[in-house]
Amino acid sequence: MPHAHPYWVVFGDVHGRTANLRGIPELAGAAGVIVTGDLTNRGGVDEAQEVIESLAAINPRILAQIGNMDLAPVQDWLDDQGRGLHLRAVELVPGLGVMGVGWSGLTPFHTPSEVPDFQLASWLDETYEKARHFKHLILASHTPPHGSKTDVAGSGAHVGSRAVREFIERVQPDLCLTGHIHESRSVDRIGDTVVVNPGDLASGGYVLVSFDGDSLTTELMDIGGGRP
């Protein structure tokens, strides 16, 4: 369907499973694609390249960052390709920017790219210095904020980042796009910030973000079923 304003397709937690890319009708016409993390399943550059090439065949306008399940060299490769988002601030269109922080907080599973919460806090502050001039700001954080609908593990425990939560409470970006916790697919709000976790791509979740020059519209979508 035609869109009156520029829009972006957002998803994460691909884990090398790209079949659902063909099921996103808005993908080819999007102004860009944002991948919030976990391109692979404990994979390196070769596996990540396969994912990015599958996506670029449909839409080459990609910004991506690693999650905890990607090996660290993947981020260097994304940066070298001009598609890296981790620790970067990128103007999407005049008046709207996105800043990215990938990896994840510490998990019980000893995944390849985890850091303590204080490192996430430092990265958020460092990256915000590059992004504070944007009138409207999107935060792409692989790790969801603690104590929200978006960070509830299967056990019922909140396993998100307190640093991400504190940053959102303090800075109040327009939108936080997150993932990491597949089973916590939801939309929440922290103050004025909308927080969206679409779950993993293989389960069919993605986000549409559109911008009319003054405000963002965010929709949680389901492949094959429109709005969930």
Structure report:
With 228 residues, the protein is of the alpha/beta class. It has a single domain (7-222), classed as Purple Acid Phosphatase, chain A, domain 2, CATH 3.60.21.10. The chain has helices spanning 45-56, 73-80, 117-131, 162-171; strands at residues 7-11, 32-35, 62-64, 89-93, 96-101, 136-141, 175-177, 186-190, 193-197, 205-211, 216-222. A six-stranded mixed β-sheet has the order 4-5-6-7-9-8, covered by helices on one side. Helix 3 (117-131) runs parallel beside helix 4. It is globular and about 40 Å long. The two termini are 18 Å apart.
Strand content: 15-25%
Overall outline: globular
Find the CATH topology.
Answer: Purple Acid Phosphatase, chain A, domain 2
- Ranges with pLDDT <50 over ≥5 residues? none
Radius of gyration: 16 Å
Count the helices. How many? 4
**What is the CATH domain class?**
Alpha Beta
How many β-strands, per DSSP? 11
Average pLDDT number: 96
Largest sheet: 6 strands, mixed
In which range does the helix fraction lie? 10-25%
> What is the correct CATH architecture?
4-Layer Sandwich
- Which strands sit side by side, in order, in the main sheet? 4-5-6-7-9-8
| Class inferred from helices and paired strands | alpha/beta
SSE arrangement, N to C: EEHEHEEHEHEEEEE
Query: What is the CATH superfamily?
Result: Metallo-dependent phosphatases
Topology:
Blueprint lengths: L6 E5 L20 E4 L9 H12 L5 E3 L8 H8 L8 E5 L2 E6 L15 H15 L4 E6 L20 H10 L3 E3 L8 E5 L2 E5 L7 E7 L4 E7 L6
Parallel strand pairs: 1-2, 2-3, 5-6, 6-7, 7-9
Antiparallel strand pairs: 1-10, 4-5, 8-9, 10-11
Helix pairs in contact: 3-4
